[in-house]
């Protein structure tokens, strides 16, 4: 590979010269200019996973989300519908809700007490002149939609038109887990010292999975490999996987659960991948022995041995759904070299901590995995910051990383063309 000749290249030039099959040039991960472009071209133009309906169980419940310079509110209104707004008062632009989450009767700006309903309408604006029309000053809306209990927002005036199709194709996989009626068992935020794309890329491959001993108790280390590139050391695990996967397919067919792989990661605006896949050991959950972490199953399943349903969505999320709980992961950019990873564990609404599940057991695998990944992402960010860095080649098992980068470059090009 010939290095890009101009160290002062513009983002557009770097995008045009991106080498297929290799990691991105350093400015994509380190430049504040690229960070601003990512917020504008990716996070302000695509559907972004931000929460679960379980976080908003009652009217007035809200969460706030930061995406670059944007602050968004998602709230359940008085009619129990989801609403989303820019977190900006229509008076003089003050930030309205400062907390990450809470519950309100009305939405009141703490500066001059302009008051809004949970549907965004302006209810009260003190000391306005005669003829003032409150109907012209409601909160600015943001597109919001729930997909089987997963909440997405889109800041664009015209969201990507393919999202309804994606939702229709993944909902049959998700609905049996009854996420809309679930409750939050725990939520943990980790700030990773790396660019948001490194967080996503790290999740898209298992080339590094020997660094996850807790996860590899139940997760097969053969993820991403094929018969052609499978190393001999993984052959026994692969044989075990084939056996368990065949049993899982028979179970899914008997129960009418969709399990087939759908993978459209870089050929559409809303890239996604979904598949129900086998787990090792008892095959039930992400635990040290593969058995359920929660006695009360999340859905109406006659067996807990259902492997895991894995969903990846560009640009900022991945999910794992097992019979007894669900784990959601939201990637939110903070700066060119800092990213918030928010992980949420959902369980059956009747499941009781200390009775139906041990919270430490429930959290153990993915808490450890997130901490390990954060260290790896930080290491990658520090290395890419060196003048000696140049893009390296992806291994065949990293094809999903290449797909993510190809999707990302394609979306940047589309944005700059517009």
TrEMBL record:
SUPFAM superfamilies: Bet v1-like, ISP domain. Its cofactor is Fe cation. Keywords: 2Fe-2S, Iron, Iron-sulfur, Metal-binding, Oxidoreductase. One of its GO terms (molecular function) is monooxygenase activity. The keyword Oxidoreductase applies. Residues 47-153 form the Rieske domain. This is Rieske 2Fe-2S family protein.
């Amino acid at each position: 590979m010939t290095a890009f000749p101009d160290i002062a290249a513009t983002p557009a030039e770097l995008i045009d010269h991106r080498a297929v099959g290799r990691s991105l040039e350093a400015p994509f991960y380190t430049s504040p200019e690229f960070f601003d472009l990512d917020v504008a071209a990716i996070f302000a133009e695509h559907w972004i996973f931000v929460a679960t309906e379980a976080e908003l169980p009652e009217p007035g419940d809200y969460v706030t989300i930061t995406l670059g310079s944007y602050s968004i509110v998602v709230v359940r209104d008085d009619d129990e519908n989801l609403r989303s707004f820019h977190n900006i008062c229509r008076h003089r632009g003050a930030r309205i809700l400062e907390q990450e989450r809470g519950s309100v009767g009305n939405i009141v700006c703490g500066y001059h007490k302009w008051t809004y309903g949970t549907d965004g309408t302006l209810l009260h604006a003190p000391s306005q002149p005669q003829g003032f029309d409150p109907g012209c000053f409601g909160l600015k809306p943001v597109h919001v939609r729930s997909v089987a209990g997963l909440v997405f927002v889109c800041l664009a005036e015209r969201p990507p038109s393919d999202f309804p199709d994606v939702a229709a194709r993944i909902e049959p996989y998700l609905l049996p887990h009854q996420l809309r009626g679930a409750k939050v068992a725990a939520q943990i935020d980790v700030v990773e010292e790396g660019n948001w794309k490194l967080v996503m890329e790290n999740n898209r491959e298992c080339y590094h999975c020997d660094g996850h001993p807790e996860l590899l108790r139940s997760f097969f280390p053969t993820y991403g490999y094929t018969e052609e590139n499978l190393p001999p050391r993984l052959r026994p695990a692969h044989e075990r996987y084939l056996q368990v996967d065949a049993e899982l397919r028979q179970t899914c067919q008997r129960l009418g659960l969709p399990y087939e792989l759908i993978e459209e990661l870089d050929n559409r605006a809303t890239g996604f991948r979904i598949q129900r896949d086998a787990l090792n050991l008892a095959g039930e959950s992400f635990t040290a022995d593969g058995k359920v972490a929660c006695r009360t199953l999340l859905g109406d399943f006659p067996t807990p041995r259902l492997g895991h349903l894995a969903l990846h969505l560009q640009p900022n999320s991945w999910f794992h759904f097992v019979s007894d709980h669900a784990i959601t992961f939201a990637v939110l950019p903070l700066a060119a070299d800092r990213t918030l990873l928010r992980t949420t564990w959902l369980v059956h609404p009747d499941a009781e901590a200390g009775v139906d599940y041990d919270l430490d057991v429930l959290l153990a695998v993915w808490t450890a995995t997130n901490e390990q990944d954060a260290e790896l992402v930080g290491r990658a960010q520090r290395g890419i910051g060196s003048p000696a860095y140049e893009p390296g080649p992806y291994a065949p098992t990293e094809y999903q990383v290449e797909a993510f980068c190809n999707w990302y470059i394609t979306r940047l090009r589309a944005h700059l063309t517009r």
